[in-house]
Amino acid sequence: MTDETAPEPEGTAGGNPDARDRDEAHDRDARRGGTGWRGWRAAAEAALYGPGGFYRRPEGPAGHFRTSVHASPLFAQAVARLLCQVDEALGRPSELDFVDMGAGRGELVTGVLAALPADVTERTRAYAVELADRPAALDERITWLDTPPAAVTGLLFANEWLDNVPVDVAEVDPAGVPRLVLVADDGTERLGEPVTGADADWLTRWWPLPAEEGLRAEIGLPRDTAWASAVDRVVRGVAVAVDYAHTVDTRPPFGTLTGFREGRETAPVPDGACDITAHVALDACATAPTAHTPLRAAQNRGCAPPETALAPPATAHAPSPARLLTQRAALRALHITGARPPLALASTNPSAYVRALASAGEAAELTAPGGLGDFGWLIQPVGIPDPLA
């Protein structure tokens, strides 16, 4: 990235009053979240979720990239098995909630309903949370929402949701100061103002940047807030976030911001034509939901919560400590191993062997090191023991 914060010679933006005024106007516009130069959070929000945004397009996410949900029905079967374990821990309530956050076109929630035992299906209230319009052919048993239900007793599952919660990007300037990265609609970047306030505090704790020019970080505070808000809806049960992730000891030095279009990784351009995504600091998200999150704290004080969120009912339990594990470990705990079927089955029942071999291949993809198996699972129990402990 070209540094535009250092002094510039006469004839460039720094020495040309008109150009300097233009840059200052861009900076003001960026702070307002308008067009022109903006922080990556505002730009990605408009490109992904605004009118005509990427996630509102008719083909849906599956038209551009493949998640665990699309890789194999075994993933939905594993989530259904987890929902059954939550059901048992809850004492088999008369109504059991399953909430699919960032539901795409409802692929996961549809697969989970299909995989549940009949007696559990009868008690399950299924919700798909997505900003796009409801698909015409979606199972009528699924309630389509643009925000999660106010009170959840059961399992809230967020598969590759947090990575699409937009975040700002910081980059270290020549003086060693982390500055906000501004972006134009064509993907061109420049440096803006120094990172301050809560964003700076988040960087200090979760992604400290050495004073080395060009180092970058994604400021994950909006994801922490989004996850805490989602967990706040869980009265009793479990919230799970699944995403490609890193921890404070493994942060990549230049960040992870990227784009996806038509199955291929591409440069992130906030024009609505591609996905814009970045890995998730799941360790930071894990500490966000506590008994003193803004919603619960407001409720405990008898104060009204913010108008943009719904407070959980007074019977809501405080979250237990969260746990991080790999998808490989989580799916193995849910009996998805990728083990090959016994060779003897090939001679006694060839058709069954072929089916089992195909299933083993799909399971191997879901649990593969260096691939989907390295995804992080954030397990957040609320009022019940961790079902995967």
Structure description:
This protein is an alpha/beta fold and 389 residues long. Helices cover 32% and strands 21% of the residues. The protein is built from 13 helices and 17 strands. The strands form four sheets. Strands 4-3-2-5-10-17-16 form a seven-stranded mixed β-sheet. Strand 6 and strand 7 form a beta hairpin. Helix 4 crosses helix 5. The chain is globular. The N terminus is likely disordered.
Offer a quick outline of the entry.
The radius of gyration is 23 Å and the shape is globular. It has helices at 17-32, 40-49, 68-71, 73-89, 107-115, 118-121, 197-206, 221-232, 282-287, 294-300, 327-333, 344-348, 350-366; strands spanning 38-39, 96-101, 124-129, 142-145, 152-159, 168-172, 178-183, 189-194, 216-219, 234-243, 245-246, 258-261, 264-266, 275-277, 280-281, 323-326, 376-382. With 389 residues, it is an alpha/beta fold.
Order of helices and strands: HEHHHEHHEEEEEEHEHEEEEEEHHEHHHE
Mean pLDDT: 83
Number of helices: 13
Structural class: alpha/beta
Cross-sheet strand order for the largest sheet = 4-3-2-5-10-17-16
Fraction of helical residues: 25-40%
Characterize the largest beta sheet: strand count, sense, and whether it forms a barrel: 7 strands, mixed
Topology:
Blueprint: H1 17-32, E1 38-39, H2 40-49, H3 68-71, H4 73-89, E2 96-101, H5 107-115, H6 118-121, E3 124-129, E4 142-145, E5 152-159, E6 168-172, E7 178-183, E8 189-194, H7 197-206, E9 216-219, H8 221-232, E10 234-243, E11 245-246, E12 258-261, E13 264-266, E14 275-277, E15 280-281, H9 282-287, H10 294-300, E16 323-326, H11 327-333, H12 344-348, H13 350-366, E17 376-382
Parallel strand pairs: 2-3, 2-5, 3-4, 5-10, 11-15
Antiparallel strand pairs: 1-7, 6-7, 6-9, 7-8, 10-17, 12-13, 12-14, 16-17
